[in-house]
Design goal:
The complex is a heterodimer of chains A (about 230) and B (about 100).
Chain A lengths: L1 H22 L9 H14 L4 H9 L1 H22 L7 H7 L6 H23 L8 H18 L7 H25 L23 H24 L3
Helix pairs in contact in A: 2-3, 3-4, 4-9, 6-7, 6-9, 7-9, 8-9
Chain B lengths: L1 H20 L3 H21 L3 H46 L1
Helix pairs in contact in B: 1-2, 2-3
The chains are: A mainly alpha (about 230), B mainly alpha (about 100).
Chain lengths: ~230, ~100
């Protein structure tokens, strides 16, 4: 009971601390100088129709590389903890008791799987044109495979394929960054490829390439996480 | 428009409190996913489709699935632990 009262008092105190933030809130009249530069010059400089992608992949590209590295560390941790310890044995024993999915789930998932796969690829290939990008597309692809796991619970994914996909795309991402360092303005500068016409699929320099690599990396990592969670040790 | 924002925000708050208070873990996980889903709608209304997509895909879909997998693993582990401890105690009484 006392614990509850302390929690409530802490929450009320916290809301009082944050009250000035709420009271002083007002609509921003104009953008800050840096954002203004991004908005006015971003599309022209990099040739991206979606300005968010220009910021995420190019202007703040190093942060994105850091994000990908954090995700990699998290995946490595999950694999280390729950990784593929024992093979066979208890795996099949537990799966035998499992009942199959209903007709509705099986048909729906089989119907949706290729569509979701295509949609995920569409999201990251069109990252420089429409909202979304590598992370979102990768997650959509991973969710397609989760759906596949629901209907075929005994399906085994090849972890060596997943790991090599992940490692190759991560290495290629860094390599593209280094190519930008040599042939363009700096690390992760996508302008070593022609930026083309705004709004076309093949435009914006190396941004579609980088986002596709991120999508493949994120997708294979998340499939690996879900699969090692599902696997009975 | 502001009414929609407030309504969605209230729904989000209710879902968040419900997720903490629920006794059933599976319902709590799904309610936590609802919080993210309403959050993604709010992001979309605020004009941030990129963030909304991330929130919907990661926050409400993948996190929920991973939590559910983790919970099923925990319950299975608890079942096998119980079985093995029962076996041990039976063996002890026979001796």
């Amino acid at each position: 009971m006392i614990k509850r009262i302390i929690i409530i008092i802490t929450l009320i105190g916290l809301s009082f601390v944050l009250l000035p933030l709420f009271l002083n809130m007002e609509d921003a009249e104009r953008l800050s100088e840096l954002s203004q530069t991004y908005v006015t010059e971003g599309a022209e400089e990099l040739g991206t129709a979606n300005l968010v992608t220009a910021v995420v992949v190019s202007y703040r590209g190093l942060d994105t590389l850091g994000e990908v590295a954090v995700l990699f560390a998290a995946t490595a941790g999950v694999t280390l903890l729950l990784g593929t310890k024992k093979k066979g044995g208890s795996v099949t024993d537990l799966l035998e008791e499992r009942r199959g999915g209903s007709e509705l789930l099986n048909t729906g998932a089989a119907l949706l799987f290729p569509v979701l796969l295509l949609f995920g690829a569409y999201i990251f290939v069109h990252g420089h044109l429409t909202p979304g990008g590598g992370f979102q597309g990768g997650v959509v692809i991973a969710s397609a495979f989760v759906l596949l796991l629901f209907i075929e619970s005994d399906r085994e994914f090849s972890h060596s394929v997943l790991h090599s996909l992940e490692a190759l795309s991560g290495a290629a991402y860094v390599l593209i960054g280094l190519i930008g360092l040599w042939f363009a303005a700096g690390f992760l500068d996508p302008r070593f490829l022609p930026s083309g016409e705004i709004g076309r699929l093949l435009s914006a320099g190396a941004i579609p390439l980088i986002y596709s690599l991120i999508g493949i990396k994120v997708g294979s990592e998340l499939i690996g996480v879900v699969d090692s969670l599902r696997r009975r040790s | 428009m502001i009414v929609v924002y407030i309504l969605l925000g209230l729904m989000m708050l209710i879902a968040a409190v419900a997720a903490i208070q629920m006794r059933n873990i599976v319902s709590a996980i799904i309610t936590a996913g609802v919080v993210s889903l309403i959050g993604s709608i709010l992001f979309l209304l605020a004009g941030a489709p990129d963030v909304a997509m991330t929130e919907a895909a990661i926050g409400s879909a993948l996190t929920t699935v991973i939590f559910l997998f983790a919970w099923s693993r925990i319950t299975e582990q608890m079942k096998t632990d119980k079985k093995s401890s029962e076996h041990d105690s039976e063996g002890g009484s026979n001796d």
